[in-house]
Specification:
Layout lengths: L2 H91 L23
Length: about 120
């Protein structure tokens, strides 16, 4: 082999090695860019999920407070209603001094004929 052929063969080998290296570099750079994009997308999705989770926890806490307040109000109303019922029962049982109490007829309607 002549020196010129050896130089051309070495140059070709080095050139093809450089081209292959550049090709691998371009592929690796594209792959890295793709992976970074996926990671950024995943981080954005995770951040959004954390924010939604925080909002959901706040809403749950607010709803639990409202529910506790509503239960307290309901208990208060029930106790007021039971007091009203007790007073109404006592008033119904007491005799009146003005007019005697008349019970409704068995059919449930008041008598429409005066002095019958």
């Amino acid at each position: 082999m002549s020196a010129e052929t050896l130089i051309w063969a070495t140059s070709a080998a080095v050139g093809s090695g450089l081209l292959a290296g550049m090709g691998v570099g371009v592929w690796a750079r594209r792959r890295i860019t793709l992976l970074r994009t996926q990671i950024e997308h995943g981080e954005a999705a995770r951040t959004a999920a954390v924010e939604r989770s925080r909002q959901a926890r706040q809403q749950i806490a607010q709803l639990q407070e409202e529910l506790a307040a509503a239960k307290a109000e309901l208990g208060k109303r029930k106790s007021e209603q039971s007091r009203r019922d007790e007073v109404a029962r006592r008033l119904d049982e007491e005799p009146t001094m003005v007019l005697p109490r008349h019970e409704l007829p068995s059919n449930g309607f008041a008598d429409t004929m005066p002095l019958a």
